[in-house]
Amino acid sequence: MKSDEKDIDLQSAETGQAAGKWAEGMTTGFIPVDGGKVFYRMYGADRPGTPVIFIHGGPGCGCDYYYKQTPIGKDRPVVFYNQLGSAGSDIAEEYTRADQVKKLFTVERFVEELDTVVKFFGFDNFVLCGHSWGTMLALEYAAAKHPGGLKGIIMAGPYLKTETWIEDAERLIRTLPDGDHMWSVIQECDASGIYTEEHSRIMEVYARNFYSRVPGAMDGTPEEPPTRVVDGVDVYTYMWGPADFSCTGILKGRDSTPLLKEVQVPIMYLCGEYDNGSPEAAVYYRSMTINGEICVLPGCAHDMTRERPEEFNAVVNAFASRVGDR
Questions:
Q1: Could you confirm whether 287 is annotated as catalytic?
Q2: What global pTM score does this model have?
Q3: 140 contacts 134 by C-beta, under 8 angstroms
């Protein structure tokens, strides 16, 4: 682990996690939100530490890849919630058409949803831990709501500006064998809207190098609850696009970095060494951050929660203790 702050005890957090299952001892439920209800899991409700609310990526992924973060609940309350349209978080029955549902999938509505989740638990103090798209959502929420109880934000695999994300994707792809050709194929597919078998192959190569590099890291990930789906709508495709390296959805051109100057609480940028939410991007974001730091986990990529869970958990625990446990 590389960090520009103090050393962190990497042995302080063990997963203790059975493959294919969320840990025992959780509370589950639903929170009514605009457009439906969101599913949540909570651990460590009676623990004394500052709570951490996890915000998943995607948009539309769900919290399955956080299942190895449950040991953090030994020290503090931890909440995992699935955003509307993600696993187990059902859109209300009255939404039957694609055009109706798409109105729910805006940054602004997801900010209001997160605000509802925070208020539902009523924590006096708390830390947000966003991953990928979840980092943009955390920043947008912090800037819009200025919550008094927010003590800090962890931005894992940060995505705060679409242009930066795509520039990083191009740079990373061009480092691969035949990378120049692969980037040309991507550009051609995006321009035509026709995504070929070669495009699918490139997605697999990209994922092996910049999403998850640790063999077996995703094995045993538990299945999330089913979700009510409206025909013709996929949250990820509508908001982002066809692949991690191509943005054709409503987030195209989105830039939340001007909001960084409005956030006073400490921000930790946490990246994998080979992350597509890159350490280089973290340096750029930190340059605009009032109280920022960077930590890089070696040998892993964007899927650090499953690739390096012990180290990831240790960083989260140490940050939450430092900014909140006083």
A1: no
A2: 0.93
A3: no
